[in-house]
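Hi all, posting the design record for the shared folder.

TITLE: backbone redesign
STEP: 1 of 1
STRUCTURE INPUT:
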C-alpha cells in the first residue's frame, strides 16, 4: 500500500512553526549565515518575520506520523529572531571601514548580495526598515547637495529617493544595550533562581545570551566596554556552560539537516564512558511492519 510520504523528496521531519496567513499557506526556508559562527543555518521567513529553526534531539526517539514511522526522533521548532542580528555581519563587511574611516554608503541590493547565499535577497522587504535603526541613511533626491555625483538628468531620475546605508557603531551599541536591558527585565519573571540574582549577575547573564548571536570582535568587545564588564568573564562563563551541557542537543538547525550530529552526540554516556551497545534481539520484526494493513484473509497488504 502506498504511503502518503512516498513521493516526498526527503524523509518527513517534525517542525513546530506558526501557520502562515497567506493564501499559499507556506513560508520560505532560507539558508543564511549564522551571525556568530558564519555557518549555513536554516531560517523560516514567514509573514515578514524571520524565525530561527532550532533542533532538539534526545538519544533515543522516533515519531509516528500516520502510518509512517520517522526514525529521526529530532524535533525542529521555530523561534522569532531579530533580523538585525542576522544582518549585522553583512552590513559590517559592506561598509569596508578602515581605522578612523567609517566606510562607504551602499544600497541594500549591493549589501544583501552575499556570494553563495542568494536567500538574503528575499529579505529585501524587511532589511531597510530594521537596519535604519542601526545605520546612517542618506537619500538621493537628484540634487548635488547630497554629495552624490549625478551624470545627467536621466540618471538623476533613476536614483531619486534611493536609500544608501552605512552601519553606525554608536547606533548598534545603543540597540544592543536596549536588548540587554529588556532581557534583564524579563529574567526575574522566569523563576526564583533568576529573581534571587543581583543586578550585576543578571547583566552578565543577558550579555552571555546576546553573545550567541554576536561576533566577539568588534561587537561583544564594544558592548562589554560600554557596560563596564570584563569580557573574559563572559567568555569563560559561556565555555563552562558548554562543558556541562547534557547529551540531548538543542542548537540552530543546519541548512541541510543531517543525522551525523545526533549520532556523534550519543557515542558516550553523560559521564564520559563509552555507551553500552544495545542488545540485538534475534527474530524481532521491524516496527514499521506493525502498521501494515491486514486484509480479511489475514495477509499483509
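Okay, here is what came back for every position:
SEQUENCE:
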Amino acid at each position: 500500500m502506498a504511503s502518503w510520504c512516498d513521493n516526498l523528496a526527503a524523509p518527513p521531519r517534525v517542525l513546530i512553526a506558526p501557520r502562515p496567513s497567506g493564501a499559499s499557506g507556506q513560508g520560505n526556508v532560507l539558508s543564511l549565515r549564522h551571525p556568530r559562527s558564519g555557518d549555513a543555518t536554516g531560517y523560516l521567513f514567514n509573514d515578514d518575520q524571520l524565525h530561527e529553526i532550532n533542533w532538539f534531539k534526545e538519544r533515543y526517539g522516533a515519531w509516528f506520523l500516520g502510518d509512517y514511522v520517522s526514525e529521526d526522533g529530532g524535533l525542529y521548532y521555530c523561534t522569532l529572531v531579530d533580523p538585525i542580528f542576522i544582518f549585522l555581519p553583512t552590513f559590517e563587511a559592506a561598509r569596508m571601514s578602515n581605522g578612523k574611516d567609517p566606510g562607504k554608503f551602499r544600497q541594500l541590493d549591493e549589501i544583501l548580495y552575499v556570494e553563495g547565499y542568494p536567500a538574503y535577497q528575499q529579505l529585501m522587504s524587511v532589511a531597510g526598515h530594521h537596519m535604519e535603526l542601526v545605520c546612517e541613511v542618506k537619500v538621493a533626491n537628484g540634487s548635488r547637495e547630497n554629495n552624490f555625483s549625478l551624470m545627467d538628468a536621466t540618471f538623476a531620475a533613476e536614483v531619486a529617493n534611493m536609500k544608501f546605508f552605512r552601519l553606525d557603531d554608536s547606533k548598534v551599541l545603543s540597540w544592543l544595550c536596549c536588548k540587554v536591558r529588556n532581557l534583564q527585565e524579563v529574567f526575574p519573571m522566569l523563576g526564583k533562581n533568576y529573581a534571587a540574582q543581583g543586578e550585576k549577575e543578571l547583566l552578565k547573564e543577558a550579555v552571555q545570551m546576546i553573545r550567541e548571536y554576536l561576533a566577539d570582535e568588534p561587537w561583544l568587545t564594544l558592548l562589554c566596554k560600554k557596560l563596564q564588564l570584563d569580557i573574559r568573564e563572559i567568555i569563560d562563563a559561556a565555555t563552562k556552560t558548554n562543558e556541562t551541557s547534557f547529551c540531548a542537543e538543542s542548537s540552530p538547525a543546519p541548512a541541510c539537516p543531517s543525522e551525523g550530529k545526533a549520532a556523534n552526540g550519543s557515542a558516550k554516556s553523560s559521564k564520559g564512558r563509552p555507551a553500552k551497545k544495545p542488545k540485538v534481539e534475534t527474530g524481532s520484526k521491524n516496527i514499521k511492519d506493525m502498521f501494515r494493513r491486514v486484509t480479511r484473509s489475514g495477509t499483509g497488504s
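COMMENT: The chain is about 35% helix and 20% strand.
Let me know if anyone wants the other runs.
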